């Protein structure tokens, strides 16, 4: 195996997520996307955007809104590390992402990310003033992970 970082567009990355992600739809937009291949075949993408949470929108933080692979070994941690290095090159100082509490976070740990917060939520994210589309993962506990861009990224 020899994973290799390749350029991609947000549009192409969104299509990959649409076809391959286990439980999320593609995000509406993003700031940039990264992709990786193994032996010439596209095996994963990561889409990076502004943080969804308003309290994290400080102009120096980005959020990996989707990381999606075909299951190729180490592809997810490779993408998390690459997305962080790109953020650092662009001047961002912090990266955040979220996993479901039921997911182990192994790829994030392998890429040097740290668990920052847990949120237990039993009600749906949808509210009358801000309805959510069906098909999102509502009512599940989430873990927020963080990595600071100046720290050496592994993966």
Mind explaining what this structure looks like?
The protein has a single domain, classed as Gcn5-related N-acetyltransferase (GNAT) (Aminopeptidase). It is of the alpha+beta class and 155 residues long. Strand 2 and strand 3 form a beta hairpin. The mean pLDDT is 86. A seven-stranded mixed β-sheet has the order 1-2-3-4-5-7-6, sandwiched between helices. 20% of the residues lie in helices and 32% in strands. The chain is built from three helices and seven strands, in the order βαβββαβαββ.
> What is the residue-averaged pLDDT?
86
Helix content: 10-25%
CATH topology: Aminopeptidase
CATH superfamily: Gcn5-related N-acetyltransferase (GNAT)
The H-and-E topology, N to C, reads as EHEEEHEHEE
Shape, principal axes of CA atoms? globular
**Helix/strand/pairing class, anyone?**
alpha+beta
Spatial separation of the terminal alpha carbons: 14 Å
Strand order of the largest sheet: 1-2-3-4-5-7-6
* Rg value: 15 Å
CATH architecture: 3-Layer(aba) Sandwich
Beta-strand percentage? 25-35%
What is the overall number of helices?
3
How many structural domains can be distinguished in the coordinates?
Answer: 1
Strand runs, count: 7
């Amino acid at each position: 195996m020899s994973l290799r970082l390749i350029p991609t567009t947000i549009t192409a990355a969104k299509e990959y997520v649409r076809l391959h992600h286990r439980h999320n739809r593609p995000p509406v937009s993003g700031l940039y996307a990264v992709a990786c291949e193994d032996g010439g075949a596209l095996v994963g993408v990561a889409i990076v955007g502004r943080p969804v949470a308003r309290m994290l929108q400080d102009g120096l933080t980005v959020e990996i809104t989707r990381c999606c692979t075909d299951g190729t070994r180490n592809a997810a941690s490779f993408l998390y590390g690459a997305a962080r290095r790109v953020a650092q090159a662009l001047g961002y100082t912090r990266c955040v992402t979220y996993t479901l509490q039921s997911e182990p976070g192994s790829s994030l740990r392998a890429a040097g990310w740290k668990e920052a917060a847990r949120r237990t939520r039993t009600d749906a994210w949808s509210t009358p003033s801000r309805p959510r589309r069906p098909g999102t993962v509502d009512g599940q506990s989430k873990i927020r992970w963080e990595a600071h861009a100046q720290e050496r990224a592994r993966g």
